[in-house]
Design a protein that fits this description.
The N terminus is likely disordered. It is built from 6 helices and 14 strands. The longest helix has 14 residues. 19% of the residues lie in helices and 26% in strands. A hairpin with a 2-residue loop joins β9 and β10. It has one domain: Ribonuclease Z/Hydroxyacylglutathione hydrolase-like (Metallo-beta-lactamase, Chain A, 4-Layer Sandwich). The protein is of the alpha/beta class and 289 residues long. The radius of gyration is 18 Å and the shape is globular. α5 runs parallel beside α6. The chain binds zinc ion (2 copies). One zinc ion binds next to loops.
């Protein structure tokens, strides 16, 4: 069983590089950003997570959630070293990148990382996205020193900013990547954009998740919705809850909320998942884990 993790909901986000490592959810919406009062509590920002340590800040994905994170980082006199690790390059996971302010700051050091086995040339994809005609400025002329660095090819492991990092392929169109961050006896698995219900490599993924303090998993669909959305690359709360129970994780956090899912509907999914795995919550923008 993983360590006990306290989740402070909706605490105002501050980048804390001084004390304990801080894991924060900045965006949990799938497919596209949404707004409106029915989405207030869980938020409309798309996928972004961060783990801040004394040595730097690791960011997973650049959905619209990364924009507010960048603004917070810019309030600090010295920017920490920043690494953004991409799970994949679907629009909802990269669309915030042009508005990540640290990219514009001279002297900032930002590393962009992704799976070296991806079929597309992902650095070129990002250079195309952040350049005319899609954006008025060209990423190649931004102020920060920006490095494109594939993840190491061997062992699927590395260490940076004091964090042990492992990764694992996920079933998803164009393939997605799960990350596991371990630091000071806590571990966080981020497994967004994953058709877990149809993952035939389930045993290996189960091992990857085993004993994690926190499992953040794709629960875009209800089981009823999934029956008509097979092959679209997303999972259900039911599969996530079963995985959490079998893999013996400390807490399950459901993410990649469907763009139409209201706060009350998310609450209902959580209650259903809790019948299988009681320590289930739903991801929300601003959540400290
Ligand atoms: Zn997505
Ligand atoms: Zn995707």
């Amino acid at each position: 069983m993983g360590a006990v993790v306290t989740i402070v909901s909706n605490a105002p986000f501050k980048v804390n590089m001084e004390n304990e490592p801080t894991f924060t959810i900045h965006g949990a919406r799938g497919t596209t950003a949404v707004s409106g009062r029915t989405f207030n509590r869980y938020g409309g920002e798309t996928t972004c997570f961060s783990l801040a340590t004394r040595q730097g800040i690791l960011i997973v994905d650049a959905g619209t959630g990364i924009i507010a994170l960048g603004d917070q980082l810019m309030c600090q006199s010295d920017l920490p070293p920043i690494t953004i690790m991409f799970t994949h390059f679907h629009m909802d996971h990269v669309i915030g990148l042009p508005l990540f302010k640290p990219l514009y700051r001279r002297g900032a050091s930002i590393t962009l990382m992704a799976d070296p086995h991806r079929k597309e040339n992902w650095p070129d994809c990002l250079r195309t996205l952040v350049a005319p005609p899609f954006w008025p400025l060209d990423l190649r002329h931004f102020g920060a020193a920006i490095r494109f660095q594939p993840l190491p090819r061997r062992n699927r492991r590395m260490r940076t900013y004091g964090v042990e990092i492992a990764w694992h392929p996920l079933r998803h169109p164009q393939q997605c990547q799960a990350y596991r961050f371990s630091i000071q006896k806590r571990s966080f698995v981020i497994a967004t954009d994953h058709e877990l219900d149809a993952d035939v490599a389930g045993e290996a993924f189960m091992d990857f998740c085993r004993g994690a303090s926190v499992l953040i998993a794709d629960a875009q669909y209800t089981p009823a919705e999934y029956s008509t959305q097979r092959g679209w690359g997303h999972g259900t709360w039911a599969a996530c809850a079963r995985l959490a129970a079998t893999a013996g994780v400390g807490k399950l956090i459901l993410t990649h909320h469907d763009r139409r899912r209201t706060d009350m509907q998310v609450d209902r999914l959580v209650r259903q998942a809790q019948r299988i795995f009681p320590a289930t919550r739903a991801a929300r923008a601003g959540m400290l884990v």
